[in-house]
Task: inverse folding
DNA sequence: GTCAGTGCAAACTTTTTGCAACTAC
DNA sequence: GTAGTTGCAAAAAGTTTGCACTGAC
């Protein structure tokens, strides 16, 4: 897999630039993340790693911090706990979040983000963008209609 | 103050529509929120209310839930805890959040949100939008330059 | 009078931290 | 060898919950 290799390279670059050690745990976490699809949270990542390369929760938190800092992973905060997603080779999209059931859908979107990117933000160097649209999803709308009847 | 009255009216409408009681605590929370400027968190709100009308944390959480549901208040999740802001008569803006110091700046923006609003989102009824731009703010850039020297 | 709402504290959940053991360099 | 990392468990921080009391309707 080309992407995994590129990401690992990027991570090595980041670790070296910041005088962090290249521990097997860190690469195992990165590898696991880029083996999964879509969003994930710490709990998912931790339990997914139980079989192959067991890593403690503390280390996962630590590694995720580095990955977010190195811009290989993006952190979201929708509900009670943090959610993450791959940042490398992951096309721009926004998130629609249902106020009722909390479900989240990704929607591809290039135009909007290119507009945003061309904005001049004085003194601020952007690293990534997140657009959330809150509302009611189709399923929950149907349910509430039925309830009101 | 006109706005406070309008908001209260809206809240009454919402409470009645949903068979909730119109308790003094709820109006005190709403009033406090619309007396403050900018973003706030539960802790700030709670301590700001200590003097005039003391309300328990549990009630503040409860009331905020109702206010978010009634779309009079918007909930954000930047860092460890939830942040809130007024939603009524609060013009569209995005948020620039510094990855280093965590500071948040509001930037007014009408065009972008009008583009988003005109999007057709099949089966999804939007209630509000949040655009976050993560990056490094001017202050932190300066600091890190100095450090690297 | 009734039951939704409140205050309080305890419980819960997610994340952070302290510390001894370990290991990348 | 030595400091940065890890794992574990304890602690912290934010939020939710259980329960008795109160007050809006």
Result:
């Amino acid at each position: 897999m080309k992407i995994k290799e590129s990401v690992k390279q990027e991570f090595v670059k980041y670790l070296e630039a910041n005088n962090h050690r290249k521990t097997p745990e860190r690469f195992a976490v990165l590898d696991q993340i880029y083996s999964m699809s879509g969003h994930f949270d710490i709990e998912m990542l931790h339990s997914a790693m139980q079989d192959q390369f067991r890593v403690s929760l503390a280390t996962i938190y630590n590694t995720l911090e580095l990955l977010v800092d190195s811009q290989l992973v993006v952190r979201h905060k929708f509900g009670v706990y943090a959610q993450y997603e791959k940042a490398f080779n992951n096309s721009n999209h926004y998130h629609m979040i249902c106020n009722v059931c909390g479900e989240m859908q990704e929607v591809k979107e290039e135009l909007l983000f290119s507009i945003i990117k061309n904005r001049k933000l004085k003194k601020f160097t952007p690293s990534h963008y997140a657009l959330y649209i809150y509302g009611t999803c189709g399923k929950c709308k149907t349910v509430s209609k039925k309830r009101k009847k």
Residues 21-24, 42-43, 57-58, 61, 80-82 of chain B lie near DNA strand D (CB under 10 Å from a C1'). The CA atoms of residues 64 and 141 of chain B lie 36 Å apart. Helices of chain B lie at 2-17, 24-33, 42-48, 57-69, 111-118, 138-148.
